[in-house]
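Case study 2.
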Amino acid sequence: MFTIDWNSVSNKHKSGIKFKEGGSNVYGGQIYYDGEADKLILSTHENDSEKYGISLNRESGNVGIGTTTQGSKLQVGNSGDGTSAVTNVWTTFSDIRLKENIQEITPKEALQDVLNLRGVRFNWKNDSTKKVNIGLIAQEVEKIIPEVVNTGRDGY
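Prediction:
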């Protein structure tokens, strides 16, 4: 059984609801509006530490899962924290009926672009496991194929 405390999020910029286990002072989570950041946040608590679940930025409409610093319409995890967020890859429409001004890329051009890409092994700075990853450096890819790199409001 859970009890609900209305307007009990104690901060002048935050108001919302805290959920706690019945008969105890242990809070399991909360839903609140952070007026300073202009975000609606759903979070859980574990050992007196807030774990972000879902956040919604009211101004941009961006949604974050596991983060409150969402730089795109949907962001899962934080950039570079080793969460292996896969939301940077989307299935998008490729139907010719939805496109115009189509310009062919020759096989020679495509091959040259691929050959100019530098593959790297690296560790994410915020990943405590220091697992070795393989990938590309976005800033380098942007110089070769700018159409495939997007930079969010936060610069990432």
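The first strand starts at residue 2 and ends at 6.
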